[in-house]
Design brief:
Strand content: under 5%
Largest sheet: 2 strands, antiparallel
Radius of gyration: 13 Å
Structural class: mainly alpha
Order of helices and strands: HHHEE
Strand order of the largest sheet: 1-2
Shape: globular
Number of strands: 2
Helix content: 25-40%
Oligomer: single chain
Amino acid sequence: MEQKIDISRFLDPDGKIMQLSSKGKFKLAILSYLAEKFKENHNYTEKEVNEICNEWHTFKDYFVLRRELMDNGLLCRETDGSRYWRPKKD
């Protein structure tokens, strides 16, 4: 059974991400938390992705969050940036 990592110290009272940890396990847990805000089997524009990222963090850097989601395989996109989606979980 997978143990859930406590990321509460990285979240404000509204559940928004206040900072992205530099430690791997916390960073991935925070990114996974953010990825859950995206629906599976749904296509997003870059603007929609940015809006969702902005809605769920307080440090005003959706670029980093979007890139980290993609780099960690939690969000996919077409090479031309025309479509983003959350991959299905195995």
